[in-house]
Design a protein that fits this description.
Blueprint (H helix, E strand, L loop, with lengths): L18 H14 L7 H5 L5 H12 L10 H14 L3 H5 L7 H26 L10 H6 L30 H13 L6 H16 L22 H11 L1 H11 L1
Helix pairs in contact: 8-9
The chain binds a DNA duplex (21 and 21 nucleotides) through helix 3 and helix 6.
Organism: Zostera marina (Eelgrass)
GO molecular function: DNA binding
GO biological process, one term: response to auxin
Length: about 250
DNA sequence: AATGAACACAACCGCCATTTA
DNA sequence: CTAAATGGCGGTTGTGTTCAT
């Protein structure tokens, strides 16, 4: 009974994705669209499990993803949504279409959790009525709506942009298109993996120059992705609309 | 200049709900 | 209806980079 076994175990490669793998995946999704991930390793020859392919696409390769520093507005929104929803990162991410749940989760764990704890401790130092929390996990409890905690105790966050991202291997859709150009010149380079990685490191180095802000220019990707370049603008527009603000404010107020 | 600590983030793991044969 | 695959999600980890000493 049940479904026939699907051997996903043969696709066992793990670790960081290579540019070649990314291109393969992007090309496949371009042709077939996202979804039916169980077929992806078989049809593409990628030695990755379907889960890994889906994750790579949704968290990294999908068009419309905004990378780099979170804006103060985004930060405020995340804090407020986390207060309301708890650690429902996917739900929170649905209010920030350009951000992935993984990114938001990382941002929360790295920046906001600490910031809130610090603010909380300062409050405790200034006001004896507030009990000092002694662990980072307590921050989650403080903000858990299900516990019915008084939201007025939620510390007001200070706005501070995080520092620039590291220059470790980071892939953007812009990088994919650039790599495609390089790749076309020497598609069968036997040292493709290592050399391509080097190329990508160079690309990222260049991308991270100046203010270190990672900017994704999707215009280069039009030829390989069914992506509307206006999408990012659309997200930005939607982001700024009073409608969306009211949608969220309505929940909080 | 060297080195250890802290930071940042991509990727993996495990669990659960849904889908499918 | 059953059981296994699949997809989705949240938590955690591994590792490269940056910063401080």
């Amino acid at each position: 009974m049940g479904r026939p076994p699907f051997n996903d175990q043969i696709c066992i490669k793990k670790g960081p994705w290579t540019p070649e793998e990314d291109i393969t995946l992007v090309s496949y999704v371009q042709e077939h669209g996202p979804g039916n991930w169980r077929c992806v390793p078989t049809n593409t020859g990628l030695m990755r499990c379907s889960k890994s392919c889906r994750l790579r696409w949704t968290n990294y390769l999908r068009p419309g993803i905004k990378r780099g520093n979170f804006t103060p507005q985004e930060e405020q929104k995340i804090i407020r949504l986390q207060t309301l929803l708890g650690n429902k990162w996917a739900a929170i991410a649905s209010h920030l279409p350009q951000r992935t749940d993984n990114d938001i989760k990382n941002f929360w764990n790295i920046h906001l959790k600490k910031k809130l704890l610090r603010t909380n401790m300062e409050s405790a130092g200034n006001n004896c009525r507030i009990e000092l929390t002694d662990s980072l996990s307590s921050i989650d409890n403080i903000h858990s709506p299900l516990l019915g905690k008084d939201s007025t105790t939620t510390p007001k966050p200070t706005i501070a942009a995080s520092n620039g991202p590291s220059s470790m291997y980071v892939l953007s859709t812009e990088n994919i298109s650039q790599l495609l150009k390089t790749w076309k010149r020497s598609p069968h380079d036997t040292k493709s993996s290592s050399s391509s990685n080097a190329d990508f490191n160079d690309i990222n180095k260049n991308t991270h120059d100046g203010n270190k802000e990672r900017h994704i220019d999707y215009s280069h990707l039009e030829s390989i992705l069914p992506f509307d370049p206006n999408l990012e603008e659309d997200f930005s527009t939607r982001w700024n609309t009073a409608e969306l603000e009211m949608e969220i404010d309505g929940v909080f107020c």
